[in-house]
Amino acid sequence: MSKKNWKWSDANFSSLPSHENIFGITTTPQTNIYLHSKVLDPDGANKIIIASLAGKIVVVEYQRNFDNLIPSTKEIHFTYLPGDAELISLDVISKFNQGSGIIVGITFIKQKQGIEENDSSCTQYLNIYSSCEPGEESHLDSIAQGCLTIDLDFVPYQLTHTQIISEGKKEDVFLLGGSDNRVHLYKEGFQHRFREEDSDEFFPEFQDLDSCVQWLDIVYYETDTRRLTATGHQSGLVRLTNVDADKKVVLYTLVLEHDSPITSVRIFNPVNNFSPPSFLKSDNIPPPYKNEVPVFHLLVVSALSPAVVHRDVLNKQLKDRLILPGSNSYDIPLCVCVMDVDFDGQNELLVGTYGQELLAYKFVDSSEESKTHDGQTIKTTDSVDDSRNRHKSNECKHSIDFDEDFMKTNLSRKTKSQENISTDSQTCDSTCLVNMYDNAACMHVQQAKYNLLWQKSFSCPVIGVDRLDIVGDGLDDLIVVTLKGIHIVQPDLFDVAKVCSERLKLLAQLVQDSKHNEKDA
């Protein structure tokens, strides 16, 4: 089963509710890359919240009805959201382990009409919702009624959250990127009241940003004493900062430059590392891989260039780079997800594009010359690192520069209106274009590469991809957000059950052999 080409298929689709304007005309709802978030419940009742630009917010979950699981879509009416407001971003903090339940943050813009016909201005706000009644901390209907409104003097972008160490305790905080080239921090105070704090005090890596941050990702390691922060900027800049979280000191900053705005960045571990249960004791069961210095890769997605993976950034910084071939062949790549989609313990990379395609990439070594898809072979190569410093600075800078003329003539991004795209493999033309790009960009084949494992087509642009056990069966589902709603995508459950059975039998055999060896000894 390890060599199986896993096929993921739709299990459910939940559409956004339509919106009726003042003239009685029903408009098609749309969302953006910032307007969805997942709710993690320790009891297994995980949910997805998605909002439309027009202010319609729905929660998608699975509910148990006797022995059946039924998908449910329910609209939640949040207070203090004007009818003419345009929602920008949304995020959810799940604090069940701290007894605080769910906290929801929503940013929006409201247009003010002046006295004169063309006299108008916009005001921006951040609404933070939490329950005002004891015992209702996990009920979204109750949470939607308790609102704290914060005026913003900048245009908001991504709203996310992370943890900080304050007075020896971990605290969840909101981080909000703004058009003022800053990342703003909102910290919870007395009676669940959030207020803005100086982000430079807790996050020195956010000082002196020269462009607005469109995407942010943070990872802690070494028992939360070190922090890796990746920021993707509107100018095409990517900053990777290593911070001493205890002393709040920047250890070093790496800067990478692309020729187009950054749509997403993701720090990830290439391997799924799980410890075996304590009752499975055998010398034949390998222990989980542990290293004093973990291995982190950085995935960078920009609007016009192929997605790039920088490997082992703690040791190699930004010098070891692999390209995801064809990731920019279907209009703009917008979102990414890291997930083991073929159950081999290695994480695959999923890229969602505005061209209505979801692309899954798998890492292979140089011994694999090609990857076969249903009888067809897709051959890819990768480029070497071509670093060029464009600006003088004390920071370590790298630059990715793709030939504009070559890109325009040979790599025009395809959309649904231009071709009939297969969901199983690339067309010959697409494969040739990928090879042309790789041959033009590199002088030799690298030792390792990423191959396209599979791709799946949708009826609308893909603007969000995430992983979540929304069904509650212990298996992560693939959550795909399009302009019109949410797709819940699952693998073949019979095949998953077969793999699970095979591996349980293998574990049982290993434990039995270990017991026999102990008796013989």
- Put simply, the count of helices is 6
Determine Rg (CA atoms, Å). 24 Å
How many beta strands in the DSSP annotation?
A: 33
Strand order of the largest sheet: 16-17-18-19-29
Q: Low-confidence parts lasting 5 or more residues at pLDDT below 50?
A: 369-445
Q: Helix fraction?
A: 10-25%
Output mean pLDDT. Answer: 80
Shape: globular
Give your account of this protein's structure:
The protein is mainly beta and 521 residues long. It is 12% helix and 42% strand. The chain has helices at 140-143, 199-202, 313-316, 404-410, 428-441, 493-520, and strands at 9-15, 19-20, 26-27, 36-39, 47-51, 57-65, 68-75, 86-95, 101-113, 120-129, 147-152, 156-166, 169-178, 183-188, 194-197, 213-221, 226-233, 237-244, 249-257, 262-268, 297-302, 308-310, 321-323, 333-339, 348-353, 357-365, 371-373, 376-378, 396-399, 448-457, 462-468, 477-482, 485-490. The longest helix has 28 residues, at 493-520. The protein starts with 8 loop residues before the first strand and ends with a helix. 37% of the residues are buried. The model is unreliable at 369-445 (pLDDT under 50).
Which key terms come to mind for this protein?
mainly beta; four-stranded antiparallel beta sheet; 6 helices; 12% helix; globular
Topology:
Blueprint: E1 9-15, E2 19-20, E3 26-27, E4 36-39, E5 47-51, E6 57-65, E7 68-75, E8 86-95, E9 101-113, E10 120-129, H1 140-143, E11 147-152, E12 156-166, E13 169-178, E14 183-188, E15 194-197, H2 199-202, E16 213-221, E17 226-233, E18 237-244, E19 249-257, E20 262-268, E21 297-302, E22 308-310, H3 313-316, E23 321-323, E24 333-339, E25 348-353, E26 357-365, E27 371-373, E28 376-378, E29 396-399, H4 404-410, H5 428-441, E30 448-457, E31 462-468, E32 477-482, E33 485-490, H6 493-520
Parallel strand pairs: 19-29
Antiparallel strand pairs: 1-33, 2-3, 4-5, 5-6, 6-7, 8-9, 9-10, 10-11, 12-13, 13-14, 14-15, 16-17, 17-18, 18-19, 20-21, 21-22, 22-23, 24-25, 25-26, 26-30, 27-28, 31-32, 32-33
